[in-house]
Amino acid sequence: MTTATFTAGLAAFATGVDAMIQRHGAAQVEVLGGSGGPGADTAAALGDRETQDLLAAMPGAANVTANLRMPVSVSGFAKTPTLWFIRGDASDMGFTEQLVDGRWLGGPGEAVLSSKAAHQSGLGPGDEMTLELDGRTAAVSVVGVVMGSGTGTVYTDWDVLTGLAADVDALGQPIAYEVALDAGTDPAAFLAAVEDEGLIGRSTRQSDATGVAVVGLATLFALMLGTVAALGVFNTVALDARERRRDLAMLKSIGMTPRQVVAMMTTSMAGLGVLGGLAGIGLGVAAHRQVMRLAAAASQVDMPDSLLRTWNAPQLALLALAGLLIAVAGAYLPARRAARLTIAEALHSE
Predict the structure, then answer these.
(1) Residue 294, class by beta-carbon neighbours within 10 Å (0-12 exposed, 13-18 middle, 19+ buried)?
(2) Burial class, 70, CB count within 10 angstroms (exposed 0-12 / middle 13-18 / buried 19+)
(3) Which pLDDT score is estimated for 349?
């Protein structure tokens, strides 16, 4: 049960990481624009502000944020990080769930680091950074650290960008407009309306092939382990029944029925299955948390504690029940065979 619990936790962890990195609880649609966007050279291309205003005015749009992502030199970084310059209400972008230290952006001149960037630079909440772009500089204060996606990323507000570049369009960078939809709004219908306006959008609900593969392999591995465990119980009960042939014959001679023999042998293994299951669950949970922390530390990524809380009471109860069922299933066939053994057959070798 230790390995089965570990693999179940791994599957849930992979799903949780995928949802957190893709920010499933935030925007449902992303529209690409700006002077470096895919529609910049077409007659339908709109200006930056006009694009954001158009999206905000469309039926079903609850919140629209714009973000421009580009490499910018930052003091304290040996390798140039990617800067996210964000405009609009950034409180619902899904980054607050990723916080591992400090807080999310709340005002001008603030910055939040991905955990990878924090490890690479040695910076954290309360530190100052200087950004430089084409000879112009801007100072920002680090207010928080988020998990991030394993890359060196710095998040800050749009006003910092306008301080670094007098003409944002001249940078030639695409701008991503993230659209959070009202409850009940169909993302596909909204995307169709976006395309009718000559814009290019996509759903943010992209399937993570790695996460799907991890979940599939973990499920298959758990089933294989359950089968192996049941076969182990089968072998143990079969050997036990062979060693206790004389005892079983004596019990049958004083009136024990075949059903009572089956019940006796499966019950004895069921008790061991429950105890082994409970011990295995505890070890599996502890092993999962330790291994995930070590893996995150090795990749210089810090995780929020919520990602390690992958189990709840019903899931743990099901795992304990699985241990019981594996023990009973493995014990049933050899117990039934022993119950069918006649007294004469049992004492034949005595």
Answers:
(1) exposed
(2) middle
(3) 52
